[in-house]
Design goal:
The complex is a heterodimer.
Chain A lengths: L2 H5 L32 E3 L9 H5 L5 E5 L12 E6 L8 H5 L5 E3 L14 E2 L36 H4 L12 H8 L7 H5 L6 H10 L2 H11 L3 H7 L3 H5 L18 H11 L5 H4 L10 E5 L3 H12 L3 E6 L7 H4 L8 H13 L3 E4 L9 H7 L2 E4 L5 E2 L12 E3 H9 L9 E5 L3 H12 L3 E5 L11 H9 L3 E3 L2 E8 L2 H4 L8 E11 L8 E14 L1 E4 L3 E2 L13 E2 L2 E2 L12 E3 L10 H21 L3
Parallel strand pairs in A: 6-7, 6-9, 7-8, 9-22, 11-18, 12-13, 12-18, 13-14
Antiparallel strand pairs in A: 1-4, 2-3, 3-5, 10-19, 15-16, 16-17, 20-21
Helix pairs in contact in A: 5-7, 5-11, 7-8, 7-11, 8-11, 9-11, 13-21, 17-18
Chain B lengths: L24 E5 L11 E7 L2 E8 L7 H5 L8 H4 L8 H15 L5 H29 L3 H22 L8 E2 L2 E2 L7 H24 L2 H7 L9 H5 L4 H5 L6 H4 L20 H25 L21 E9 L2 E9 L7 E5 L1 H14 L7 H7 L4 H4 L2
Antiparallel strand pairs in B: 1-2, 2-3, 4-5, 6-7, 7-8
Helix pairs in contact in B: 4-5, 4-11, 4-13, 5-6, 6-11
Amino acid sequence: MNIKDFIAPFAVWKRAFEKPFTVRKPIDERPGAPRYRGFHINDAKACVGCGSCEAICMNQAIDLVPVAGLPAKEGDSGLRPRVDYGRCCWCALCVDICPSGSLGMSNEYVWVDADPEVFRYTPGVEAKPWDKSELGYRRAEGYRLLDGQRVAMPELDHQAAVQSFLELVRGYSRQQAEREADRCVACGLCVASCPAHMDIPGYIKAVRDGQLDEGLNLLYETNPFPEACGRICTHRCEAACSIGAGTGADGEPADPVAIRWLKRYIADQVELADYGRALPRAEPDSGRRVAVVGAGPGGLAAAYYLRLQGHAVTVLEKDEAGGGMLRYGIPEYRLPYPALDKDIAWIQSLGVDIRYGTAVGVDLSLADLAASHDAVYLSTGLPAPYRLDVPGDDHPRVLDGVAVLAAATRGQSLGLGKTVAVVGGGNVAMDAARTALRAGCAVDILYRRREADMPADPDEIREAKAEGARLVEKAIPLEVKAIPLEVKAIPGDPAGALVAWNEARMVQKEDGQRPVPEPIPGAVHEDRYDSIIAAIGQGPDLAFVAESDGIEIRRFKPVVASDGRTSRATIFAGGDLTNERKDAISAIADGHRAALAMDRLLRAKGN
Amino acid sequence: MSRAKAPYIAPAERAAPDLDSGKYLVMWQGPNHPGITGNMSLRLVIEGDSVVDCETHVGYLHRGFEKLMERRLWMQNFPLVCRIAVPEPDFNEYCYAAALEELAGIEVPDKAVWLRTLSLEMIRLASFLMWIGGQAGAFGHGTIAQWSVTMRDYVLDLFEELTGGRIYHMYIIPGGVRGDVPAGFLRRVLETMDTVRKNLDDIELVMFHNVVYKMRAQGLGYIPPDWVDQYGITGPNARAAGLPRDLRKDLGYLAYPRLSFEPIVGTVSDAFERSRLRLLEMYQSIDLIRQIVDMLPARGAFRAKLPNPLHWKIPAGETYVAAECTRGEYGFYVVSDGGDKPRRVAVRGPSYTHGVALMERLARGVNIADVAGLMVSLHTYPPEIER
């Protein structure tokens, strides 16, 4: 103790005249810091309603609730997060995980109301004063709880790929597949967008957990072509995937989960000999007989599910092998035949009887078939190519894309010459172009609209270009002409043809409609090609259906109910023949749906 | 004596007051009392104005965190752990994150290491500022609390700017931290440190050169050095007793090995010495924060890439991660069975040792008016006693 100890405490008095530290609310406003974790905001348009916020919230403060007035679209659940501020702990993990990046927090922290119910609300849907707040917590740059980058798929180098029909995509290793499967948040948006409604989160979980038998079982519940679909599916699921909804850590658009490659991984990893361990066997014989016309993916899918129910199934196929367009329309470098054979072999192993080289309408009539079976499924697809519909399209050097691909499958000589023009912008056009490239041709792809308008898979367009195909956009074919005799007379020159085409510009005719190409007057080009491959689509061939069969046909298609039933009770139809999507997975979905309906029909008939 | 063993108290030493004699009065202090940061009770038996016996009663704040964590995904526990010690949440975040990183084999980027160190030192300062207000307040010096809590709020302003939250920062996330420093932040850190330092000088003058404070705090709650290992005393309570134990030095975690500082050691461990030592540690924290600001890397990643938090599984194993918090050794013992949730998490908080067994021992013979001051001098946070 000393004198200082008595005097020093009086030093507090010096503060008596200082400005107080306190804020005089409500006279003085004190906004939250720019990163403040205040009330939630949500860009309801960018949000896809995947529910990752709900899944990560440790307080169960977030519920995904239906919201009226949202435009219905694939890859959007139509639900939006509702936050309960009686539970929220303001941790912002929901913001950190949000794949679309729509969720954020404002820096507002004062909200007074007498009604406790209002503190449970849907940000971005119920308007709040802080909706437009620029400040508040957002995910920091370079910080994302979910990985926006896909595990790169090992592929053959394009220079090497174009030399052969070796499969381009090599497939994931176990480590790669598990890492890719880890990116999934199991939101299920993909399930809704898949025509077959495959249990995608389920089989991705199986990959993650290394339970491949379980994964295979889930695949076969809705799709007996996992090897094929794991390679060539149009993967609408990936367009719907919530992981691809926002931007990645690098600011680039995030990659959706590689759902298709994970499906392929499961099917590739389980040997055919082990399928029996994972998959169900057929029920005991029901005594019913079913005929399926066409051994494409749709027909065989129907056959598989009918056979599982114990019905005797006979598949009639005009070609010498099964798979339909998967075999004759898709080149080997995308879908190797052993992979397709594996899918078909398992279907056959259940006792499905496939009769190759038997064409209905030629070898036997549909009426005979209907009479000798309890039900018939028509899945004949679209075998008749559309013509170019320009003068000279009957020139012998104008070839049909599907025919070229089928010839390649059969190992026949293509005889395309050195220069090839492919007309069209769909997957068949890309496949034909790439097949021609592998035959050593120089390939031009003529398409009437822009690249962005092409119906082909973007990967296919990218690969076709990488392999050396030249894409000529906005080119409208006008005429195919024979080469004048004096030009043709060069010795050793194969007979070719001249293609006249008109440069076009895109014109927006009506709002909301896609722009149409309009020829630019005078901008007509004439190029010489050894072969011209027309790949502008195919139509059905219903010559085998007689009027007496009692099947109503409208606009070249059998009229079918949602379950595939035609106007005749025991005859069903599906696949490319009837549906709009015209892809393998839709055909498989049709086949599955029709098989269930046919099974009900057959059981209802009684014994 | 082994630290694992409970201290032995001889029967003769234990007061066995006859409550029916009319000589004693039973008095409850708490569960709400200004001398206690949180809810907890002391059942005091008093004779005249002296405490004869003291029994600590906890249970008012039990939220079952350790059990709750077994039901939540690894990442979901990240917003939960900070609530275990309310005034000082960051040590929970760090220990939990570091334990997970060790079990999962994750390398934390250097920048995150520095930002974590910054955040831990800032909260050490904020926590001491709150404590010193309580310590002075318990002896009737409310003015100090007005000053120090204001200073704490300025530090919390910095946290708000850095992390988006004032109390629960939720900044140290497994893998790193949640964001880089905002523009101009480091300058404001240094400015705030100057302000706090000036105020600490005032506090030092008014509180530690104060006849009342000296008379009441000196000699109160003396801890003999040999009790330190008996009771498991850590932190400033142990250092005031003359033991140079500081996990920042002893374990050398985060960026501490790259900072220059020495543990501050006292001599006579009474309430006055302990509070003086904590004041010096506040100056030390300010110095460390300045060093960190100086050495913080300007660029670099602040978080390592982690698996999807919704499926994150951590390989089976167990670990104990400790850090030096304001009260002493703070630790998380984490067990994983290889699943997506912890199998067991046990939290070691220093308040448990200091606030329960030690308090019961020290309270005997103390004047009833000094019980609150004694309690605060041990620096105890009841929310951390009850996980």
